[in-house]
Write a structure and sequence with these properties.
Helix content: 10-25%
Shape: globular
Number of strands: 17
Number of helices: 4
Radius of gyration: 19 Å
Largest sheet: 8 strands, mixed
Low-confidence stretches: 1-9
CATH superfamily: 2,3-Dihydroxybiphenyl 1,2-Dioxygenase, domain 1
Strand content: 25-35%
Structural class: alpha+beta
Mean pLDDT: 94
Distance between the termini: 45 Å
CATH class: Alpha Beta
CATH architecture: Roll
Length: 316
Amino acid sequence: MKSEHPRIEPVVTAVHSVDEFTFSVPDLQAALHFYSSFGLEVRREDGGLGLYTDGHPHRWGRVLEGGSKKLLWITLGIYAADADALIRRCAANAVVLIERPHALAPDGIWLAAPDGVAVCLRVADKTSPSVKAPREFAPERSDAGRAPCRSAIQQVRPTHLSHILLFTPDIGAAMSFYCDVLGLRLSDRSGDNIAFVHSPHGSDHHLIAFAKSLGPGLHHTSWNVSSFDAVGLGAQQMVQAGYPDGWGLGRHVLGSNYFRYVRDPWGSYAEYSFDIDFIPAGAVWPAADYPPEDALYVWGPSLPEDFITNHEVPIM
C-alpha cells in the first residue's frame, strides 16, 4: 500500500507507527480467550490469530503458535518517500539488513536491531494517533447521579494500540538504533533502566518503551480506552474472565496515563490505558532523565515482585 508523506516543517525522516507486533505462544486457544476477554476482536487468520480493535480495520498484532511465548518480530510503518533515506541511514550506521525471518512475515525492509530482534520497515498508512484520543467524562446533571448503572455495563472495547514495551539488554544501543537510525525521538527515560520514544510525525508519549533485561522480549502491549471508568471496568471484566493478576489501578508519571495491567497466561501483560500524554507532529517534547522513584507510577498498589521479569529469557 502506498502512503504519501504529509510533510511537516522541518522535513523529518522517521518511522510513524508500530504497524504490527508478532509473538508466539504455546496455545492459541488460550490467547484467543485472553484477548477476546480483554475486549479485542480476535480473528483466526494467516496461520494464527489477528488482533483488532472495535470498529477499526487495522490489524495491530499477530499471535502464532510456537513452543513458548516469544517476541518474533515487529513491523514499523514508514512513508514511501522515506524508504530510500532510511536504507541509506542504515548503511551509514552499519545496521545489518536481513532476510525475511518467517514464511508468515510481511514483505518490507528487514533489519536486525542491536539485541537481535527482527524489525521490518513497511510502507503503510499511519496508525499511530495524529491527535489526542477523545476522553469521556460523565456529564454534570442536576436531576440524577452521574455514575453509570451496573445493570447497563457492556464489555470494555479498546480503541487502538497505544504502545508496546520491549525488553532489551542495552538501553543505550536501543536508543542509537531506534532514534539515530529510525528517527524516533526520546520522550523520557530513567537512567539505563527504562526509556520511552515517540514519533516526530505525532504519536502518544511513547510509541515504544524499553526496559532493561538480560535479553529481548515483549513485556506488554498497551491499549487505549476512552475513560477512567473503562480502566476500572476492564480490570473487573478480566477478573470475571479468570485473569485476576496484574498491576493497578494506578497512574504513571511518564506518559501521565491511568492504567491497569492484566497478566496473561505467559507472564507478560496487556494494559488498559487512559489519557496518555500526546506529542503532536513537529513538537519538541522536554525529554528528561527521571529518578527511579518517578519511573513507574505516581500512585497505585505496590509493584508485583516479578513485574519486570522477562519470561522469554531462559532461567539459568
